[in-house]
Amino acid sequence: NTEDIQPIFAQHTGRINSTVIDRKWTTSTYNVQSLGVRSINEVLRRLHTDIIGIQSTGTSWHFVQPQPGQHCFIKNVDDYWVVFWPYGGYSSECTNKSCGVAIAVRRTIIPRSALIATFSPDPQLQGRGGALRIRLRGGGDFTIGVGYFPPAQLYYATEASSLLWDWFAHVVQSCESEP
Does position 111 have pLDDT exceeding 50, yes or no? Predict the structure, then answer.
């Protein structure tokens, strides 16, 4: 059941030996539609965790609009740097206007300079997933991902979920094979 796997990394904490940090990170995930429309600033203030996966940004945050050929973009918001993967407007059974995901990272925990790669799914899944590869000085090379899986009752849920999991597996494999 895809509803059981919505928060991909909600319970994860990591310990990294680094010149930047040496502490446990707090993480959370948030669906913008779950508690009504909230601004990005309000979401970040309320959750107040180090890394936040955000789903369903498409219908709520109109400033998150893609430019032609742009799959994701980065914006500084309060104490975070945030990577947005907006709904792309592509004609696909696997996406809709509520799609759009983001990963917010607290700047004092992981500097933006540690971001070495962003990963975006194929256009048919645009706004359903996104991933970051982070490399800290002194150690720590890891990938953070966020996914917005469709409710199980939708006719395309199985296909979209399968494609998204396959994409995540490909991202992880590519990060493991590249130094």
Answer: yes
Q: What's the chain look like in SS3? A: CHHHHCCCCCCCCCECCCCCCCCECCEEEEECCECECCCHHHHHHHHCCCEEEEECCCCCCCCCCCCCCCCCEEEEECCEEEEEEECCCCCCCCCCCCCEEEEEEECCCCCHHHEEEEECCCHHHCCCEEEEEEECCCCCEEEEEEECCCCCCCCCHHHHHHHHHHHHHHHHHHHHHCC
Nearest to 165 by CA among 145, 143, 140, 139: 145
From the CB of residue 110, how many other CB atoms can be counted at a distance below 10 Å?
25
> 0.85 cut: is pTM over it?
no
Q: How confident is the model at residue 67 (pLDDT cuts 50, 70, 90)?
A: low
Residue 125 burial (C-beta neighbours within 10 Å; 0-12, 13-18, 19+): buried
- Tell me the sheet residues that pair with 81: 76, 105
Pairing between strand 129-135 and 100-106? unpaired
Query: Which tens digit of pLDDT belongs to each residue from 31-41?
Result: 887 655 567 88
pLDDT per position as a tens digit, 8-54? 333 233 433 333 445 678 888 888 876 555 678 888 888 889 999 99
